[in-house]
Amino acid sequence: MKKYSIGIDLGGTKILAGVVEKASGKVVFEVKNKTKKEKGNKKVTAKIIETIEELFCESKISKDEISSIGIGLAGQVERKEGVLINAVNLECKDLHIKEILEEKFSLPVYIGNDVEVATFGELKFGAGKGYQDIVCIFVGTGIGSSIVKDGKIHLGASQSAGEIGHIIVDLNGRACACGANGCLEAYASRTAIETRILGAVKKGRQSIITELTEGKNNISSKHIKKSLEAHDEVVTQYVNEAVDYLSGGIASVINFYNPQLIILGGGLIQSVDDFYLATIKKARAKALPTPAQSIEFKKAALGDYSGVIGAALLEERKL
Question: How far apart are CA 189 and CA 143, in angstroms?
Fold first, then answer.
C-alpha cells in the first residue's frame, strides 16, 4: 500500500496543497498559492496543475509513492464524475476537473466540497474524532458547512446538504453571490464584514483599518483581530453585527439537527478568539434550552490543514 496521498484545498482566495501520510494524517510537505486573480475554468485548472507540479518538484517525492489526488473545492460538486458544477467565488461552472487531472498525472482523483472535505479531516484526525453527529461550519470568504450523521458525511438527496451560508436570515436583505437575497453568508462571512467596514470608511468614518491595510481594499482576519484589540469602533460594530447573525444561524442548526458537536473553523474563527467565543455564547443563548444544554463547541483542531488532510483521505471515504 502506498504511504502518501496528495490533498488540495481550493478556496476563493488561496490554494493549499500537501503530501499527506495517510496513516497519521501528517502533512509532510506543502505548497500554498493565492487564487484571487485566477477565475474561470481555464485559469483555475491551470493554477491547480501548477500547484501539483510544484508540490512534486519541491517535495522530491516520487509519483510512485502517491496513491491518489484529492481536492476540496469551494462550490457544488458531482463526486462520482468529478465535476465542479458551480463555484461562485471561483467563477467556475461544469469544470470536469477529475478527468483533466487524471489524464495529466495518471493518478486516481477524488473531489468533494471544500467544507465537506475539511469535515472529513476533522472527523478522522481532528476535533470530531470519536463523535457521531456533528455539524462543521467554516467562516471565511463565504460560510460553508457539512453534516456528519452516524459517523458519516451526510450529503442529502441531491448531494448538496449543509449549505448554512445560504439559509435566509432576511427575506428582503442584501444580495448574495449565489443570486439570492438575505443569505447568512452576506451578513456574517469575513467578506461581509470587509464590505461593511470599507463602506463605512468610504463614507468618512475613521478606522485604524485604513492604516493596517495601507489603504488597500483587502481586510484579512489578522487585520480584524488587531482592530478589535485596539477597540476600533467601526470594526467592532460590524464584527458584533456578524456575530449576531452567525449565532442566529447556528442556533437554528442546533434546534433543527440537535448535533452532539459543532466544530467552527476558518480564518476568522482561528484568528479572532473574541469572535469565536461571542458566537458560541450567543448561539447557545438563542437555541432552545434542551439542545442548547447538551451541545458542545470546538474549534477545528487541524487549522489550515483540515481541508488538505481530508482531501488526501477521500479515496477511503464511504459515502
Answer: 6
